[in-house]
Amino acid sequence: MLALLLLFAALMLTALIALRFGSYEAPLSEIARAAFGQSENQSLNIIVQNIRLPRVLTAIIGGLGLGIAGCVLQAVLANPLASATTLGISQGASFGAAFAIVVLGAGAGAGAAPTAQMTNPLVISLFAFVFSMGVSVVILAISRFTKLTPEAIVLAGVALGAMFSGASALIQFFATDVQLAAVVFWTFGDLGRAGWGEIRLMAFVALPSTLYFLLTRWDLNALESGEHTAVSLGVNVSRVRIVNMVLCSLTAAVIVSFLGIINFIGLIAPHTVRRLVGNNHVYLLPGSAIMGAILLVLGDLAARMIISPIILPIGAITSFAGAPLFLYLLFRGSKKR
Amino acid sequence: MTVRDLDFQYGASFQVLRGIAFDALPGECLAVLGNNGAGKSTMLKCLNRILSPQKGTVYIDGGKNILRLPHHHIARSMAFVEQGAPQSRLTVYDMVMLGRKPYIKWGVGKEDIKIVEDVIEQMSLGEMAVRYVDELSGGEQQKVVLARALAQQPRVLLLDEPTSNLDLRNQHEMLSLVTQSCRKNGISAVIVIHDVNLALRHCEKFMLVKDNHIFAHGGKDVITSESIEAVYQIAVGIHEISGKMVVVPH
């Protein structure tokens, strides 16, 4: 419990720091006032309300959703490597975005830099969502109707994921230079893409799903002891597995469609918290959500500050900085055993 | 517990159990014996519908047919301990609390906490309550999962080879704990076990399973050199050593 409170305090602190730092400098008290539109400096009001606050909230909701979805997938698929990628979400989203940009010309137009190319980002997000959900629906349907074991579901996910990666590569092969740049830029991930409307939509999916995950916390604890034991403890294993996978897919697909590919959070957040509180999902689930949010806020802060004013791609930062941290935890954990 | 006409098959043709019928009385331990692949573990899993039998009925205390009830109802009257050590990184306390799963709706209640604390004290697990289960010895782990099963407050306890990876002392300690708890709480235990002599020391009733059906069922009198030879296909002698019945292979 103490660990959770500390994590929550850490999240608040990182969120404040992220609001404070940026190319426009102002004291924290002024920033807090600006968040409610109460600062006397009108341009600060606009910066905080339209740029920094949405960005930090996007990081919090995105990190929360990806962190908890990873944790739940690891439990229901009984696989420590499970994450949104396992259900083909990222690959589906990448393909959808590539399809929208190259085939439908959603990012087309001539001459300017790739950022300016995405004249219709909503179309790209829509296609990313449709394809990422499409892939996971196929995987879920296969697992439902053929009664696949969790291992087979993971393998089916890898296979379909590979298929869509291949399809994306083919589309990219036939793309123009500008389209190719737009596709690559999209997959990098960017928290600045989400405005208030997108934030509301992400929260609308992520928060009820999180609530449902929290309600099934003892089911997930039971699954940890194996499928037969879970059934003997009164858990409807196939229902818990399928409903949780659907909600994880939905949450991750919405987030990834708006923000681009940010994979590593779903792995690193649950595993980091596991080192702190063990495998009891009563603490592990909220811990993974908070840790996911912290990591994404920090990652975005780093992405903005390292060579400011250039914003580095968030997906690359979380993986690049996250992997060494992850390895450190892994080795420290194995030494303790 | 009353079991009648239980049939189970995998797929369309692979019959594993045929016409299983027996009674288990409160406070009594029933040892299920038989060679590998005879269908003992399968039978255990059919009793609380971990596997769904095609035919048959299971009644507890004359109530409804267990096989028609949803799993969370079954879990309130039957507990199951799987073969092998638990690999879960839960603390001992949380693992025992998991036994309250069938009763937990929104969250853990006061009664759940009291029951878990009682069971932990009963099983002398207090000292290791905050340790992780996967860091304990095999004997301690087996005690923890037994405690979890008892926290379910079951009428029937199903144990699948509870002593298979324990040393000599832990084997006897484990079965003594099972028999004591069953007598004290009026639970019927059904124990799949390979060690005939261990079963003879601790159980009152015996069931010999051979070729997918019950070969013999009853008290110690069903353990004869003929029945053991028929079931296990090995010649044995039955002797009495220090007043204890012992099966010795020739």
Mind describing the biggest β-sheet of chain B? 6 strands, mixed
The overall average pLDDT of chain B, rounded, is 91
What is the 3D shape of chain A?
globular
Strand content of chain A: under 5%
What radius of gyration of chain A results from the CA coordinates? 20 Å
Q: What pattern of helices and strands is seen along the backbone of chain A?
A: HHHHHHHHHHHHHHH
Can you count the beta strands of chain B? Answer: 11
The strand count of chain A comes to 0
The SS-based structural class of chain A is: mainly alpha
Form type of chain B: globular
The rounded Rg of chain B comes to: 18 Å
List the helices and strands and how they pair.
The complex is a heterodimer of chains A (337) and B (250).
Chain A: H1 2-20, H2 28-35, H3 42-76, H4 89-103, H5 114-117, H6 121-145, H7 150-173, H8 177-188, H9 196-215, H10 217-224, H11 227-232, H12 237-259, H13 265-277, H14 281-305, H15 314-336
Chain B: E1 2-10, E2 14-23, E3 29-33, H1 40-47, E4 55-59, H2 71-77, E5 78-81, H3 92-97, H4 110-122, H5 138-151, E6 156-160, H6 168-185, E7 188-192, H7 196-202, E8 205-210, E9 213-218, H8 225-232, E10 236-241, E11 244-249
Parallel strand pairs in B: 3-7, 3-8, 5-6, 6-7
Antiparallel strand pairs in B: 1-2, 1-4, 8-9, 10-11
